[in-house]
Structure formats: structure tokens, C-alpha cells
Amino acid sequence: MKKRILIVEDEENIREVCKRYLEREGYEVYTAMNGMEGWDVFHQYQPDLIILDLMMPKKDGWELCEEIRQQSNVPIIMLTAKGEERDRILGLTMGADDYVTKPFSPRELVLRVQIILRRGNQIPIQAKESLSEVIEFPDLKIYPKTRCVLVCENKVELTVKEFEVLYVMAQHPKQVFSRSQLLELIWDFEHEGGTNTVTVLVSRLRDKLEKHTIKNRWIHTVWGIGYRFEPNGGNET
């Protein structure tokens, strides 16, 4: 069955070029020219991945991304003409999995789509050797095969990248990962956002994990270096 891609982009030439390149790779592609139309198409076709422009009339990409994230963890790649770091960070904070700054190569966009969709169906390569039915810690359960995460028996909805960060770190409790290491492990290509991408993603992951508990913090900051996974969920010192 073909994977469904939704492109929400107000510039017709960009929209059509992206559509054409993705269709050549065998994807079923739907398009929308603004955020409101994108919202309707999202509900109608339930795409496997969304390519979302940041600046659009009627409803911008930030707003649409936030609304989609309230209902779905479908992978989202943001397109933006803005190169400012704060705009990229805001997009990631809203729940985007990746972003591409205009102008960009359609081939690069296709590659990013392929990588995200492929990894959405796979366990991170670094963790495959110890694949098990469940990885269990106090108040935290991780089910690799179904990508289900439970905190105090409450299901936590994670995006592809959030799950990969959690799973890779949980496979190596107490090991310190630098932000650069995590960036290299989770992304299969050079990411223009640098280590700030990891900082935002970890912050988002923590918020989701700690929503259902007041006593646990599994991902600890190692100041000046990166992060480590604390298996007992103790408070940071």
C-alpha cells in the first residue's frame, strides 16, 4: 500500500514540484494551499507524513502543526523561508520532526521523507541487538515493537524522533550522550539545525514523560555535555 503524503504549501510552483518528485518515488500525494484546507485534507486522508509550510494565509504552519499534534503523532516536516534559529526552534517546539529551509533541493526533501518514514517503521539501528518485548523501569515501560510507552500505566504519545531518543538512551542507562552524539544517532543526514534540535526535542520528550508523574525524571542533563538516562527516575542533582 502506498504511503500517503500531504503537502500544505501556498506557493503553487513549490507545491507542484514537490508533488511531482514524491509521486515519482511511488507516494500517494495530496496537496493543500493554506492551513485551513490542510486541516480538512489531513482529516479526510489521514496521511503518513505531512510537509508543512510555515508562512501561509488563513492559518499558518505553526498553528496547524500545534492543532495536528493534539490529535496525531504523524511525522511533520516544516518548510520555511526563515533562517532564524528562533523560528526553527519554535517549529520543533510545536512538534515538528524536521524542517527544511527554502530554497531547497526537491531531491533532499524526498530523501528526508524516505528516512523519516523508514525509521518510523524500524527500531533504531543502534538498539536492534538487544530488542525485547518490553524494557521496564520503575513507572516506565517501553515496548519497542509497537513503539508504545507507558508512564504509570498511562500511554504517552511520542513522535518518531522522540521515541528514538528515549529508546536509544534507555538501552544505555547512566551513559552520558553528548548532543552531537544524539544528533548523529537519530538523524541519518547532516542536520542544519545543529545540536539545538536535540535540546528542543529532549525538552519536549521530558514534558511528555513527566506529565503523568511528579516524582520521576528519567532524562537528566549533564551540564556542558549532554544527557544521561537515569533508570530509577530520580530527581536531578
Automatic annotation (TrEMBL):
<dbReference type="InterPro" id="IPR011006">
    <property type="entry name" value="CheY-like_superfamily"/>
</dbReference>
<dbReference type="GO" id="GO:0005829">
    <property type="term" value="C:cytosol"/>
</dbReference>
<dbReference type="InterPro" id="IPR001867">
    <property type="entry name" value="OmpR/PhoB-type_DNA-bd"/>
</dbReference>
<feature type="modified residue" description="4-aspartylphosphate">
    <location>
        <position position="53"/>
    </location>
</feature>
<dbReference type="GO" id="GO:0006355">
    <property type="term" value="P:regulation of DNA-templated transcription"/>
</dbReference>
<dbReference type="GO" id="GO:0000156">
    <property type="term" value="F:phosphorelay response regulator activity"/>
</dbReference>
<keyword id="KW-0597">Phosphoprotein</keyword>
<dbReference type="InterPro" id="IPR036388">
    <property type="entry name" value="WH-like_DNA-bd_sf"/>
</dbReference>
<dbReference type="Pfam" id="PF00072">
    <property type="entry name" value="Response_reg"/>
</dbReference>
<feature type="DNA-binding region" description="OmpR/PhoB-type">
    <location>
        <begin position="132"/>
        <end position="231"/>
    </location>
</feature>
<keyword id="KW-0804">Transcription</keyword>
<dbReference type="Pfam" id="PF00486">
    <property type="entry name" value="Trans_reg_C"/>
</dbReference>
<feature type="domain" description="OmpR/PhoB-type">
    <location>
        <begin position="132"/>
        <end position="231"/>
    </location>
</feature>
<keyword id="KW-0963">Cytoplasm</keyword>
<protein>
    <submittedName>
        <fullName>DNA-binding response regulator VicR</fullName>
    </submittedName>
</protein>
<feature type="domain" description="Response regulatory">
    <location>
        <begin position="4"/>
        <end position="117"/>
    </location>
</feature>
<dbReference type="InterPro" id="IPR039420">
    <property type="entry name" value="WalR-like"/>
</dbReference>
<dbReference type="InterPro" id="IPR001789">
    <property type="entry name" value="Sig_transdc_resp-reg_receiver"/>
</dbReference>
<dbReference type="InterPro" id="IPR016032">
    <property type="entry name" value="Sig_transdc_resp-reg_C-effctor"/>
</dbReference>
<dbReference type="GO" id="GO:0000976">
    <property type="term" value="F:transcription cis-regulatory region binding"/>
</dbReference>
<keyword id="KW-0902">Two-component regulatory system</keyword>
<dbReference type="GO" id="GO:0032993">
    <property type="term" value="C:protein-DNA complex"/>
</dbReference>
<keyword id="KW-0238">DNA-binding</keyword>
<keyword id="KW-0805">Transcription regulation</keyword>
